[in-house]
Specification:
The complex is a heterodimer of chains A (256) and B (261). Chain A is an alpha+beta fold. The longest helix of chain A has 22 residues. The radius of gyration of chain A is 20 Å and the shape is globular. By secondary structure, chain B is α+β, with helices and mostly antiparallel strands. Chain B has a five-stranded antiparallel β-sheet. In chain B, helix 4 packs antiparallel against helix 5 and helix 5 crosses helix 6. Chain B is globular and about 55 Å long. The chains are: A alpha+beta (256), B alpha+beta (261). The interface between A and B is small, with 6 and 6 residues. Chain B: Belongs to the peptidase T1A family. Chain B: InterPro entries: Ntn_hydrolases_N (IPR029055), Proteasome_alpha (IPR050115), Proteasome_alpha-type (IPR023332), Proteasome_alpha1 (IPR035144), Proteasome_asu_N (IPR000426), Proteasome_sua/b (IPR001353).
């Protein structure tokens, strides 16, 4: 059957010449290649990517780092698992949290694990957190023209014992920040974190938060996020990284 | 008698049916300083006597990590050993990537032995001049193993073994005590390894925390290397043990004298 550029009945968006896409409401959005990911349940051509949902956040403290992610794995409007971890321990002092396409995330982690082991063989010590951060950025850029569909937050303790977190885009641009969030619930969570952690638009005194308070805050943040984002829910896995090790806390969210 | 005529190439047989180049390579192993290995059901311990060129220089590392579940001790040409270690590390990582689990040591050792053999049957290469003691844990059978390779490509599995200079004394010690190893604890195994090594030092030297080193892998134990300061407590246990043995020997000789009339 000849390939049609326009379906017989206009269910999904059609590709209009000049690269504009019209959806069923008749709104026109400018030149995007839709991978059939979040906007359109009907795929017009094979997309190598799927979006498996979820939200990851990370917060750096004076001597700790908190990294948290929900445990829901979804595809389209279906839930594939309520108990799939998005956090991956890379060394005893740092954890990678990733949302996006799970198979790309898994592959990225396999590649990182190997590179880190090679480093350990050659340097006879585990990689430091800033070194891993740089390597992750490089690894992502290596696939600049067929990216890992992985939206990462990376958190740990640096060589001075301070909390260090880094946020990434899919092609390896990264930055060390104090607070970050990524994934489907990113837009719900970042404004809240900006206010409470980064102390934006507040008139009271800024103070350093202890890690216990931050953990409670993270739970509240995920409750809010889970209310509105369909891809976030089920449970939150919270990892608190200090120089003494990694402590993991599980917290239940709504399963709807 | 015929040695000199038939020893130029590795591909030449001697009239006695020997490959002299391979045997010369095995001599190189005997020149290296001692390395011992022993195992129980839960742990596998490697010990090595590190040689230093002069008082000013560092001691040559002899125990290498291959993976979380495998350690390697070397005797002979260090550079050859490092090249083999690189190969083995790569194979381990590859296996983990493809199959999601640690490589069974037996599989890797089999490939390693073949790698050694290939060098004995071609013009353009020479045998590896190094003997290896490889300690590993099989993830599927949940068992500990100790293997030895030599330049000829022969592969043996051992309960306990020693290679390198003056290693016969270590082998004798291990033969005497190996039946107690399966039930031994990790610390006891380490002390046994050090005791075996202590017999391999040359002349006036003694086994110290500078020139001794221990590596351990086990069923619930990822590779660890015990050197310098961490080694001292085990060396202290060694002294006590040696004193006990000396006392026991003195008592025996006294009894013998008493019996002579």
């Amino acid at each position: 059957m000849a390939f049609r550029s326009k379906p017989l009945r206009s269910f999904g968006p059609t590709v209009i010449p000049h690269g504009q896409i019209e959806n069923t409401e008749g709104n026109v959005t400018l030149g995007k290649i839709d991978h059939g990911v979040t906007e359109n349940p009907y795929e017009r051509r094979f997309s190598p990517y799927d979006f498996n949902g979820g939200t990851c956040i990370a917060i750096a403290g004076a001597d700790y780092a908190v990294i948290a992610a929900d445990t829901r794995l979804s595809s389209g409007y279906e839930i594939l698992s309520r108990n799939m971890s998005k956090l991956h321990k890379l060394t005893g002092k740092c954890i990678l949290g990733s949302a996006g396409c799970k198979t790309d995330v898994d592959q990225l982690r396999s590649v990182l694990d190997i590179k880190m082991k090679v480093y350990q063989h050659n340097h006879r010590k585990p990689m430091s957190t800033p070194a891993v951060a740089q390597m992750l950025g490089n690894t992502l850029y290596y696939k600049r023209f067929f990216p890992y569909y992985a939206f990462n937050v990376f958190g740990g303790i640096d060589e001075e014992g301070k909390g260090a977190i880094y946020s990434y885009d899919a092609i390896g641009s990264f930055e060390r920040t104090a607070v970050t969030a990524t994934g489907s619930g990113q837009a719900y969570v970042i404004p809240l974190l900006d206010n409470v952690i980064s102390h934006r638009n507040r008139t009271d005194e800024k103070r350093d938060l202890p890690k216990e308070e931050v953990v409670e805050l993270v739970k509240d943040v995920f409750i809010s996020c889970g209310e509105r984002d369909i891809y976030t829910g089920d449970q939150v896995e919270i990892a608190v990284i200090t120089k003494d090790g990694i402590e993991t806390i599980m917290f239940d969210l709504k399963a709807d | 008698m015929f040695r000199n005529q038939y020893d130029t190439d590795v591909t030449v047989w001697s009239p006695e049916g020997r490959l002299l180049q391979v045997e010369y390579a095995m001599e190189s192993v005997k020149q290296g300083s001692a390395c011992v290995g022993l195992r129980s059901n839960d742990y596998c311990v490697l010990g090595a006597l590190k040689r230093s060129v002069s008082e000013l220089s560092s001691h040559q590392k002899k125990l290498l990590e291959i993976d979380d579940h495998m350690a390697m001790g070397i005797a002979g040409l260090t550079a050859d050993a490092r090249s083999l270690a690189k190969y083995m590390r790569n194979e381990c990582l590859n296996h983990k990537y493809v199959y999601g689990d640690n490589i069974p040591p037996a599989v890797l050792m089999s490939d390693l032995a073949d790698k050694h053999q290939r060098t004995t049957q071609t013009y353009v290469r020479r045998p590896f001049g190094v003997g290896l003691l490889v300690a590993g844990v099989d993830p599927q059978r949940n068992s500990c193993h100790l293997y030895q390779t030599c330049p000829s490509g022969n592969l043996y599995e051992f309960y306990a073994s020693a290679i390198g200079a003056r290693s016969q004394s270590a082998r004798t010690y291990l033969e005497k005590h190996y039946e107690s190893f399966p039930a031994s604890s990790k610390d006891e195994l380490i002390v046994h390894a050090l005791q075996a090594l202590a017999g391999c030092v040359s002349g006036d030297d003694e086994l110290t925390k500078e020139n001794g080193s221990i590596a351990v892998v086990g069923k619930n134990q990822n590779y660890i290397l015990i050197e310098v300061e961490e080694l001292q407590p085990y060396l202290d246990k060694l002294e006590i043990k040696r004193n006990d043995d000396d006392d026991a020997e003195e008592e025996e000789s006294e009894d013998a004298e008493a019996m002579e009339t």
